[in-house]
Design a protein that fits this description.
Blueprint lengths: L19 H32 L24 H8 L4 H30 L22
Helix pairs in contact: 1-3
C-alpha cells in the first residue's frame, strides 16, 4: 500500500442522476423549440413585410447557391428545395432570435418554478446566516 492512499476505502455514493422524464422533456424541447421558432419567424416575417418595415434587402429574396455545390452527386434535390425558399436568410435570422427568446422565457419559468417548489436553500447541516450589522464606513 502506498504512503498516501487511504487504508479504508469506501465505495463513493453515486451522484444523483437526472430523472428520465426530465431527459425526455429536454429531448422534446430540442425538437419543439426550433419548430415553433420557425413557424413564429414565418408569421413575423409576413407581418413585417405587410406592415412595410424597412428590412435589409440583402436578406430578402431567394437564396443563391454556389455553383460548386451542384457538382455534388445527390445534392441537387436539396439545393433545388433551398433555392425555392423565399426570404430564407431573413427567416433564419428571425428563427435564431426566436430560439433565443423562447429559451430565455423557458429558463425564467423554470427558475421561478424551481424557486417556489424546489428544495430549501439551506439544508439541516448548514450554519445559520450570520447576524452581523454592518455600519457605514467613516474616516
Amino acid at each position: 500500500m502506498s504512503r498516501y492512499s487511504s487504508a479504508s476505502r469506501r465505495p463513493s455514493a453515486r451522484a444523483p442522476q437526472t430523472p428520465a422524464i426530465w431527459r425526455g422533456i429536454g429531448c422534446l424541447l430540442i425538437l419543439i423549440v426550433p419548430a415553433i421558432a420557425w413557424l413564429l419567424a414565418g408569421a413575423a416575417l409576413t407581418s413585417l413585410l405587410s406592415a412595410g418595415w424597412p428590412l435589409p434587402y440583402q436578406l430578402l429574396g431567394y437564396p443563391n447557391v454556389p455553383q460548386a455545390l451542384w457538382n455534388i452527386p445527390g445534392a441537387s434535390p436539396i439545393l433545388l428545395f433551398i433555392r425555392g425558399q423565399q426570404h430564407l436568410y431573413m427567416k433564419l435570422v428571425l428563427t435564431a432570435a426566436s430560439i433565443v427568446a423562447i429559451s430565455a422565457v423557458l429558463s425564467l419559468l423554470y427558475a421561478l418554478i424551481y424557486r417556489v417548489a424546489g428544495p430549501p436553500r439551506y439544508g439541516p447541516l448548514d450554519l445559520p446566516q450570520p447576524q452581523v450589522k454592518v455600519g457605514r464606513y467613516k474616516r
